């Protein structure tokens, strides 16, 4: 996950968005102790730096996992749903101000919740189509997993109300302390840091956008991959 921090800290918005999406996609594997392959990381770096486009990245990932001699759930999920994975990365980066469309991480999160938590979220490309016909749109039932998560869910869960509120407030977009105070309707900065931010950081749900420079003038808080998974769980309740 730290491989992408430098890209995220860069000022170029395009690279920041790509790096954030790839960090989420690859970092979610670490939640369950899976080690992301160097091949996948290298493919991500090439896409972020513009050496290959998203379609080329999708083809490289698919061919890589299809070439594996030992079949595993991880290999099969990437090989069988590489097109979904490709489109999920696009939706995690796509913004259209005219249509009011913002980057959406939920499709990537669903992919990795299937992989890590044993869920059966439907991975259908048509759900990601903007302004799709009504018959293509996702129903409420399909948005809910059809099987119970495995014990790995415990790594993503917290009963701490303040952490859950903070995760919901930050969402998928980096937020400053001032923005978080407003969203939570709080006025005491010290209380926010001690009762919300510090516990969330200690439990791995939240991190600094510029971790090496705590006093950065544009410092904000972002959800970690663990935080994004918790956000997904909260939104389904």
UniProtKB/TrEMBL annotation:
Residue ranges occupied by any Filamentation induced by cAMP protein Fic-like C-terminal domain in the UniProt entry? 162-224
Stretches assigned to coiled coil: none
The cross-references to InterPro entries, in alphabetical order and at most eight, read:
Fic-like_C (IPR049514), VbhA-like (IPR033788), VbhA_sf (IPR043038)
Instruction: Name the domain of life.
Output: Bacteria
Name of the protein: Antitoxin VbhA family protein
Which organism encodes this protein?
A: Phocaeicola barnesiae
């Amino acid at each position: 996950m730290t491989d992408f921090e430098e890209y995220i800290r860069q000022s170029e918005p395009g690279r920041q968005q790509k790096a954030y999406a790839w960090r989420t996609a690859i970092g979610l594997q670490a939640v369950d102790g899976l080690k992301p392959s160097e091949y996948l990381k290298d493919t991500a770096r090439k896409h972020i730096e513009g050496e290959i486009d998203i379609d080329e990245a999708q083809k490289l990932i698919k061919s890589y996992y299809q070439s594996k001699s030992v079949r595993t759930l991880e290999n099969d999920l990437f090989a069988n749903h590489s097109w979904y994975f490709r489109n999920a990365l696009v939706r995690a980066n796509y913004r259209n101000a005219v249509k009011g469309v913002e980057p959406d991480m939920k499709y990537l999160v669903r992919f990795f919740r299937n992989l890590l938590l044993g869920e059966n979220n439907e991975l259908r490309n048509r759900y990601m189509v903007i302004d799709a016909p009504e018959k293509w749109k996702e129903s409420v039932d399909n948005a809910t997993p059809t099987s119970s998560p495995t014990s790995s869910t415990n790594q993503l869960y917290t009963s701490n109300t303040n952490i859950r509120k903070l995760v919901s407030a930050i969402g998928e977009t980096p937020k400053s302390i001032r923005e978080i105070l407003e969203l939570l309707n709080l006025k005491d900065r010290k209380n926010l840091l001690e009762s919300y931010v510090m516990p969330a950081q200690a439990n791995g749900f939240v991190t600094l956008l510029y971790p090496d420079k705590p006093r950065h003038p544009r410092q904000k808080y972002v959800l970690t991959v663990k935080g994004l998974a918790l956000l997904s769980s909260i939104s389904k309740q």
